[in-house]
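Researcher: Quick one. two chains, 800 residues in total.
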Amino acid sequence: MISKRPFAKWLGDTNEVTRIFLAAGEIPDMINLAGGLPEPSVWPADIIADMAYKAVLENTEEALAYSPIEGLPRLRDVIAERYNNNETKLTRDNVLVTTGGMQALDLLGKIMLDEGGLIAGQFPTYLGALDAWRPRKPSYRPMHLEGNKKFDAHAALEGAKFGYIVPNFSNPSGFLVPLETRKSFVDAAHATGTLLIEDDPYGTLYLDGPPLPRLLDLSAKRQIGPYDGPIVYLGTLSKMLVPGLRIGWVIGAPDVITALTLAKQGSDICTSGLCQKIAQEAFSQGLIEDILAPTLSIYKTRRDVLCDAMEANLSELFQWTKPQGGMFVWAQAIDPRIDTNLLLHTAMDCGVCVSPSSAFDPSGANKNSIRINFTLNEPDKLNVGIKRLATATRRLLAES
Amino acid sequence: MISKRPFAKWLGDTNEVTRIFLAAGEIPDMINLAGGLPEPSVWPADIIADMAYKAVLENTEEALAYSPIEGLPRLRDVIAERYNNNETKLTRDNVLVTTGGMQALDLLGKIMLDEGGLIAGQFPTYLGALDAWRPRKPSYRPMHLEGNKKFDAHAALEGAKFGYIVPNFSNPSGFLVPLETRKSFVDAAHATGTLLIEDDPYGTLYLDGPPLPRLLDLSAKRQIGPYDGPIVYLGTLSKMLVPGLRIGWVIGAPDVITALTLAKQGSDICTSGLCQKIAQEAFSQGLIEDILAPTLSIYKTRRDVLCDAMEANLSELFQWTKPQGGMFVWAQAIDPRIDTNLLLHTAMDCGVCVSPSSAFDPSGANKNSIRINFTLNEPDKLNVGIKRLATATRRLLAES
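Model:
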């Protein structure tokens, strides 16, 4: 960005892809396959409206006063209960409520990173995590989890300030981290003591089969009593209910939660009590479960439509693996001349927007892939969007 | 805090006063004069409940989807209109919606401070600002605005990354920055180009007379067209309506708003749409104005009760100036043996909680004053609280 002011140095480095996505939403006839937006038609507005009304009228102080920094005690209990099972023992001391999942990433950077700290990050990496940590100028040790080679999690985590992975349908790659790799990560986190962030916005979005165990659960198995291990699990309502409440949560060892609480004190004091009360009711009344089946049904159809359209239109231009869940297909250009930063602009000229891979690389160097979202658009639009993308790709190749 | 983890270095430095306040709220019979909490009885819960209901049901996407990072366009317009007048010209490009006033401080630190940056800060300094900026390890040039000497604002701002003042009833000192000093700050900000943060949570809480002009207005006078000057004005709903919606706003030059938007993208993506819609309605329907008169009437009574009780019980132990508004009385111990960090603990043993001055000093060295809140407690409690404080102070003196 251009300005006469002496802004902090990291601002010179920031990506503007997220802003391009959001602006793309306002261009008429633009088909936005770039963002990670959920489908709004399944939102139970009438029920949430009632919950909001009752929260303010019947629990006025909880809804409208400052909350405890850590979150409303009853909401923390409800979240702990949600993840409790025979082996995973959580109490409210394991839970921090955050202002969306993004705040959890920001707070983790705040408590773990002095300037230049080393992060072992799954590659490609969620661009929001890169945004959150950029002001602390970290260095990255990229973890490539895909492919046939056994991944050495111990070497990856050793000496890092923390590790970061999205085991369920990674953003952007849609990759589902296999059970054996999960186990080796948990082994490595326990052996090295390095905190390992398990970012799990898409954990409810399994489209083809039963969920794999969480790293949190694999880690909790190893101990007796309330959780005190190295996994820091991040959840959010944004993909399982609605994003506009800005409710996320961290589950971790109590000393990590305490440090995050000190960081949150200086970030926004507390999350909206009103939004927390709605979240508490949504969990308690089973609202998440009620909307899951219709959501998955829509997403599965759209994933299939998108992949069929890609097969029909893009198979000579890109290669990809059909994801088993989540929100995205990650497609790699076959022709090495394709620079997906340039493709973004050509695609927008053709009326479709996708995310270029540079946004998911700490160095910005990876320019051969794109992320395509399948959750937001109806089948017709997915079909048209993919045709436009094929046209744009061919146009870019013809020009190069 | 004590932990086996390799946390970032600043965590070793953080104050725990805010956590002590909040915990004090849960001790039976404790009279909490420490916090900065508003009186909840004036909150129009029924009206806010209706607004919440309608926001979700009638504006579902705005309330429940992701908002633009900068905030909902209509809310930004309403905020701009609120501050517009003949001389101050604002558009939505001058406005960023934040997750409470605290987030504005955090974001300003993020965009302005590389590690160790210099802040020219009004002394004593709001502890939340110290909390927000602590992770960036800034240095402070303290600005002492009280007393008879003419303050040299130019020398204070020159070379600083930014200046920070709370002109209306400063937290903690309750000091009202006089018009001449305001003018000299605006002159100095224009002359040096240094951004000057005008933090104004208490600007509606004038108890004795008409408000002085904002620095924003004094600065806007100097130019034609939409605001592009060096004042960065911070507002919040927390003290003029309710804190639990976590709605604040920044007004500033468009390039500052753009930089803050990039910072907010990596902090929480956006503020809750539901809370923003309620704020927009509250402004549009005049709800702020409706509850102002009853709020001021309660606060004026309580301020007078508190100061009378102090006069009757503390006049040999402390000296203070009766504030003309805001939420706090700042009292300086007459006996230099009194360490108010120790007094906090003795006072809590006696059933009353106040804020020690060390929390408002970047170095923590100032230990001779206390901040006393008058807005949260009813007159009887204020009287008992001050008697307990007198007992505690005498006990501490007897022990020293």
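The mean pLDDT of chain A is 95.
Researcher: Thanks, that's what I needed.
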